[in-house]
Design goal:
212 residues; alpha+beta; SH3 type barrels; Alpha-Beta Plaits; 2 domains; seven-stranded mixed beta sheet; five-stranded antiparallel beta sheet
């Protein structure tokens, strides 16, 4: 049995060396976890997890497993849903979609080949817009920094918490839920989005602009 396992691991090592699904330094996901490849030996492959532990995986198991190599990504995806309140007008929604598209197209950190900003769903408390794009960088830390731009001084920041109006008297609507209001800073680049936002059931939604 030991000889059989040794031959299986040697054959697995050979397959890894021939196919080269990953190299030392690559970030991979394998059955049971993910991490950075530190060493590819004759019997096993050592992976340093993000918890800083080391996992040794028999090469025969790794050669026959589905391994996802994140280091081979040409770009990294951003995907989220932005909810718009039901009292928004059609023109306000169209303008919001155009503002988001213009913002993405003017952002040098966003890959310009393909992006989507589209209405998708009539949700419980919002009209949902689907935003889908990619960052130019594939580095995880830099990717998170680009995402952070949408939530710091160049995005929107939470300002205060307000309770929903109490409709228990029968006037309709929800009651007892806390909402978060958020606004873009007054001093912001012209291509940035504006207007009030709130969180409904844990999701950011955008309220319509007040009539001028």
């Amino acid at each position: 049995m030991a000889a059989k396992d040794t031959l299986a691991n040697l054959f697995g090592s050979l397959m890894i060396l021939i196919d080269q699904p990953f190299h030392v330094g690559d970030w991979i996901t394998f059955p049971g976890g993910d991490g950075v490849v530190e060493e590819i030996g004759l019997r096993s492959t050592r992976v340093r997890t993000f918890a800083k532990t080391v996992v040794s995986i028999p090469n025969h198991a790794l050669a026959n497993a589905t391994v996802e190599n994140h280091s081979l990504m040409p770009k990294r995806r951003i995907k989220f849903t932005l909810g718009v309140t039901y009292d928004s007008s059609v023109e306000q929604i169209r303008q919001l979609v155009a503002d988001i598209e213009n913002y993405l197209r003017s952002n040098g950190d966003i890959e310009q080949e393909f992006m989507l900003v589209k209405f998708t769903t009539f949700n419980e408390c919002s009209l949902d817009l689907f935003v889908y794009c990619f960052t130019v960088t594939t580095d995880w830390t830099q990717h998170l920094a680009v995402r952070q731009e949408h939530a710091d001084g160049r995005g929107f920041g939470y300002e205060h918490r307000l309770p929903d109006a109490d409709h228990s008297s029968g006037s309709g609507g929800r009651s007892g839920n806390a909402v978060m209001m958020a606004r873009y800073p007054a001093k912001r680049p012209a291509n940035q989005l504006g207007g009030p936002f709130r969180v409904c059931h844990g999701r950011v939604i955008r309220a319509p602009e007040p009539a001028s």
